[in-house]
């Protein structure tokens, strides 16, 4: 993947090198435990921790009170930040153009880079939760250590270089949730889920996650046309990543069996299919997972 020609975003809040001082709320140890339990059971840890979920119905709990205290020295500009700024900047260009076609204005999200833990309007954010989007503050939260997991834990790609487009896919997926929020999709789904049982609410969330995968594919299609930024093998690596983080594969890896009713992001096959749909078509209309004949 080549990022030289990609525009850089300035909508980055770099909180790496910041430590959290607790002044109330749930303890960090308990948050880590809940995150690991959710991961092992195939349940979005945010559903257990409360407050940081994107789609769950009901009132969200108030985030614990934490204050950010800088360690000695600020987090400096580095290759990772440059990469994130390039990917985020390219999503801003593409979604601005797509919104303009519908006579709408695209307001880009801020991407928060953090290490270990930080606070958000949706509650406490920590690395065990993985990357996520918070509609309350319209920010994407990313502990870049997750990128190391793609290679070492999930085996999603076989080298740091091969992982770059996979990492870009992850960022574009979370930006896809922001697009859903701006389009009013997330608020409508939240209202639907408030009237549903857990299994039905999970199915709705899967549809939303697969649409975000498709939106990531739309970004990749249009960015490739504009900047020719892909190298041979990049698409294959991204498809491998989509497969590696499917609910069925993660559940089987962690507990040896699959619980479909607990799926929150879709199977490996579904995630590959919908990312590929967006990648091949570059068409937002093709990403209607909610009315698709099959997921």
List keywords for this structure.
alpha/beta, four-stranded mixed sheet, single chain, 8 strands, 295 residues, 12% strand, two-stranded antiparallel sheet
Structure description:
The chain is globular. A four-stranded mixed β-sheet has the order 1-4-8-7. It has one domain. The protein has ten helices and eight strands. It is an alpha/beta fold. It starts with 11 loop residues before the first strand and ends in a 14-residue tail after the last helix.
Taken from the alpha-carbon principal axes, the silhouette is globular
* Helicity range: 40-55%
The Cα radius of gyration reads 18 Å
Cα(first) to Cα(last) distance is 29 Å
Please work out how many helical segments DSSP would assign: 10
Q: What is the ordering of alpha helices and beta strands?
A: EEHHEHEEEEEHHHHHHH
Number of strands: 8
Secondary structure elements and pairings:
Layout: E1 12-14, E2 18-22, H1 28-41, H2 45-49, E3 66-70, H3 79-101, E4 110-114, E5 117-120, E6 123-126, E7 132-134, E8 139-143, H4 145-152, H5 160-182, H6 185-194, H7 198-227, H8 234-244, H9 247-255, H10 268-281
Parallel strand pairs: 1-4, 4-8
Antiparallel strand pairs: 2-3, 5-6, 7-8
């Amino acid at each position: 993947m080549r990022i030289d020609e990609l525009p850089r975003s300035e909508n980055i809040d770099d909180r790496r090198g910041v430590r959290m001082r607790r002044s109330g709320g749930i303890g960090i140890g308990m948050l880590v435990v809940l995150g690991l339990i959710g991961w092992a059971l195939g349940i979005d840890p945010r559903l257990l921790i409360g407050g940081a979920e994107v789609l769950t119905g009901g009132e969200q709990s108030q985030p614990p009170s934490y204050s950010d205290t800088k360690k000695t020295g600020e987090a400096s500009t580095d290759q990772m930040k440059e990469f994130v700024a390039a990917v985020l900047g390219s999503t801003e260009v593409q979604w601005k153009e797509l919104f303009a076609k519908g006579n709408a204005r695209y307001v880009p999200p801020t991407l928060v880079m953090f290490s270990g833990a930080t606070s958000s309007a949706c509650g406490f954010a920590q690395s065990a939760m993985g990357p996520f989007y918070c509609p309350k503050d319209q920010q994407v939260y990313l502990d870049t250590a997750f990128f190391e997991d793609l290679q070492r834990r999930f085996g999603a790609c076989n080298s740091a270089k091969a992982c770059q487009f996979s990492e870009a896919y992850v960022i574009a997926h979370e930006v896809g949730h922001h697009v859903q929020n701006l389009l009013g999709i997330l608020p409508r789904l939240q209202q639907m889920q408030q009237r549903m049982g857990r299994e039905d609410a999970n199915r709705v969330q899967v549809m939303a996650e697969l649409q975000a995968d498709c939106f990531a594919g739309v970004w990749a299609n249009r960015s490739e046309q504009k900047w020719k930024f892909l190298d041979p093998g990049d698409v294959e690596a991204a498809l491998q990543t989509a497969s590696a983080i499917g609910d069925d594969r993660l559940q089987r890896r962690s507990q040896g069996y699959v619980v479909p009713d607990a799926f929150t992001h879709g199977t490996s096959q579904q995630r590959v299919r919908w990312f590929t749909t967006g990648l091949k078509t570059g068409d937002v209309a093709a990403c209607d997972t909610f009315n698709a004949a099959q997921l």
